[in-house]
């Protein structure tokens, strides 16, 4: 179970892709949450619990978070807290507190790459972030990078910037609830991935970003079907509402009550039941990412995946397979069992990108 706390519903930025609704001045009640958390920890005795703090921007209410965490640690010192932040408020005393507690308070930093990309997606915010603190001083920081239509052409520049800045865990994600099903997006994404492929081949010292971390060994693995996210394998328990959800996207500050009442009827216990007929016939369904609630919001069914995202991922699989085959023998063996499927996929991608020859992929 993921234990989640909605700390607040306001934010100091206005990101162009924000999916949260109902911004307000509502803030979590420390005493109520502390009581509920301790009761929950008492009823589920495990060695270590993780509690996720969700905003808004959580560090707008840092004084409350600090008191809540320290009160919890006084009774349960092994509890790990995690928070996603835009980083703009983390200076001075907050940095000191985070550094002192870096083993039990983990940060996920939402930063969209280089200055140009960051200020497009999150206007006038780049200079407010102390990047060296997150990249080199604070340990274990994970970076969330959101790709939008306006920053897709900066993807390689942004990822390499984050690597060179010292970040080790970089997770680019496409903006959800956006229309990606356009030729110019496919062509640009391909060009950006090819540039990234060259960067990683020339700089093997860097851990590849999430886009290049594809588990091809899962393709055609009939023994298990892998969820594209944690939905179905975990519950997100919101202490504030005292209610469990399939994931934090179901929280009331994200979706309205009508959609929530409908989608909660879905059976998320078996990922195969969440596949459309078309997806079940795809060889790569076991490594394909989707967001079920975004599917429902946009298309009225958790099974109906984004066609644009489907095509983008096919491009991704082709480029990453080429990267892995060139990297070393171990990776090459991980894709040898799907070589025929990759040949078919390469031809499909070549047609999608309007390449004249299906063999062009072999020369990259």
Tell me about this structure.
The protein is α/β, with parallel strands linked by helices and 364 residues long. It is 39% helix and 11% strand. The chain has a domain of 217 residues: Aldolase class I (TIM Barrel, Alpha-Beta Barrel). The protein contains 13 helices and eight strands. An eight-stranded mixed sheet has the order 6-5-4-3-2-1-7-8, with helices on one face. α6 packs parallel to α7 and α11 crosses α13. β5, α6 and β6 form a beta-alpha-beta unit. The chain starts with a strand and ends in a 12-residue tail after the last helix. It is globular, with a radius of gyration of 21 Å.
CATH superfamily of the domain at 2-218: Aldolase class I
Number of strands: 8
CATH architectural type of the domain at 2-218: Alpha-Beta Barrel
Largest sheet: 8 strands, mixed
Strand order of the largest sheet: 6-5-4-3-2-1-7-8
Reading off the top of the CATH hierarchy, the class of the domain at 2-218 is best stated as Alpha Beta
Count of helices? 13
Whole-number average pLDDT? 88
Structural class by helix and strand composition: alpha/beta
What is the beta-strand fraction?
5-15%
- Rg value: 21 Å
Element-by-element helix/strand order: EHEHEHEHHEHEHEEHHHHHH
| CATH topology heading of the domain at 2-218 | TIM Barrel
Which spans have pLDDT < 50 for at least 5 consecutive residues? 356-364
């Amino acid at each position: 179970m993921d234990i989640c706390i909605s700390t607040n519903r306001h934010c100091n930025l206005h990101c162009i892709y924000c999916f949260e609704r109902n911004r307000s001045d509502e803030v979590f009640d420390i005493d109520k949450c502390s009581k509920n958390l301790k009761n929950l920890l008492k009823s589920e005795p495990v060695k270590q619990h993780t509690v996720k703090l969700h905003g808004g921007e959580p560090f707008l209410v840092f004084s409350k978070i600090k008191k809540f965490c320290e009160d919890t640690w006084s009774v349960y010192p092994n509890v790990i807290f995690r928070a996603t932040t835009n980083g703009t408020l983390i200076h001075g005393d907050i940095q000191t507190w985070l550094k002192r507690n870096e083993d039990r308070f983990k940060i996920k930093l939402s930063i969209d790459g280089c200055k140009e990309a960051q200020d497009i997606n999150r206007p006038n915010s780049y200079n407010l972030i102390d990047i060296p603190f997150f990249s080199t001083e604070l340990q274990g920081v994970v970076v969330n990078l959101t790709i939008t239509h306006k920053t897709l052409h900066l993807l390689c520049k942004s990822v390499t910037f984050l690597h060179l800045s010292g970040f080790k865990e970089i997770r680019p994600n496409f903006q959800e609830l956006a229309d990606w099903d356009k030729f110019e997006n496919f062509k640009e994404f391909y060009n950006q991935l090819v540039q990234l492929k060259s960067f990683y081949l020339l700089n093997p010292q860097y851990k590849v970003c999430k886009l290049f971390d594809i588990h091809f060994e899962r393709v055609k693995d009939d023994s298990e079907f892998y969820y594209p996210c944690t939905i179905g394998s975990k519950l997100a328990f919101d202490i504030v509402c005292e209610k469990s959800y399939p994931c934090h996207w179901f929280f009331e500050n994200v979706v309205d009550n009508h959609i929530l009442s409908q989608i909660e009827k879905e059976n998320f216990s078996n990922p195969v039941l969440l596949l459309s007929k078309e997806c079940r016939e795809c060889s790569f369904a076991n490594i394909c990412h989707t967001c079920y609630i975004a599917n429902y919001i946009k298309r009225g069914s958790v099974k109906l995946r984004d066609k644009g995202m489907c095509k983008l991922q096919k491009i991704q699989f082709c480029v990453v397979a080429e990267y892995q085959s060139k990297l070393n023998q171990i990776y090459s063996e991980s894709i040898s069992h799907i070589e025929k499927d990759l040949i078919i996929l390469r031809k499909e991608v070549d047609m999608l990108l309007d390449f004249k020859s299906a063999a062009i992929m072999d020369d990259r």
